[in-house]
Design a protein that fits this description.
The chain has 14 helices and 11 strands. The chain is of the alpha/beta class and about 375 residues long. Strand 5, helix 7 and strand 6 form a beta-alpha-beta unit. The two termini are about 15 Å apart.
Amino acid sequence: MRIVKIANDTDKNALLERIGVTKEGSAIMKKKMDLHLFYLSNLRTPAANILKQDALSIGAELAVERDTILCKEPYVDALLIANSKQVEILSKKELSQPFGLKKVAEVLGCFVKSQRYEPKIMGILNANADSFYAKSRFDAKEAQIRIEEMIEEGAEIIDIGAVSSRPGSHGVSEEEEFSRLRDIVDLIDCQKLYESARFSLDSYAPRVIAYALDRGFTLINDITGLRSDEVAKLCGRYSAGVVIMHMQGDPATMQNNPSYEDVMSEVTAFFKERIDKAHDFGIDKIILDVGIGFGKRLEDNLALLKHLEHFSRFGRELLVGASRKSMIDAILPTPLEERLPATLAIHLKAIENGASIVRVHDVKAHKQALSIYRALEETLL
């Protein structure tokens, strides 16, 4: 006999199948194999006592301050420790409980319904001369070569933009943006490159967006998070997908002392509001981007990446774009040209924490890293 401690990120379905468990049995057992932690702030004390008893009754746990049972304070913080099956039970059980536990049940229910998506690489191509990373800049003559190269290297999505959004940058007129992009968009349409990859437009300019959606683009990467009703109307009309990104302020000023009382709660509230707006305009294909480096301090970026799975509650794909960004330099001073290893570390951790799309300058390196990551995930014994 041998006993092997199995890594938590092992493919549970494959492991159970190897043993010979039925599909029905696997579905039940897998829910008992994933452990989840939920931090509940300002939970009413009576609610904490009810939730603790309910959690204990099904084998889960709620960690609270020791005098919680005495109700000395009106509110407490708590840590719910439960596997997927226990979360599912509590999401139903607490619906009938008082003291705000219905809201707890609803949030837990969102996580029960969430799913993991297969990781994908989004390659970056810039049609402007002032993007922060020079090697991502291409004119119309070079664009086709670079697009085909990125597709060959493993990019499933190509994100094309013509206006820099680096900290301190200023926008350009819609006419100027259109003139920078027109030849590249026409090239993609003429050569039918959209048959080999999905094309995304990094823009919030209605005229440019309409032109691209007419010519094979199916995704709009909007750093303003659907601020414009006109952009929302266009995406709804064309049944286009939308990347809703969170940004505090605008690129010109966003890194001038950004601050949050609670970055997780504020980004969550923003996503809820903008998803509701997207639905109002008939947009169903939604991707969420927490906006690394867009009006964020280092601690905000790290918190959003560390707890990225929190945003799976919305049931949408999560995009992370930290490629060569200054947060790397803030942790360990590193020249822009030497930030690829740190970028790979951030993006692989983001995928582990729930991201399904990484927006990158270096497609080939990410494809290689992701291939190793997948091989490790798929390995059993």
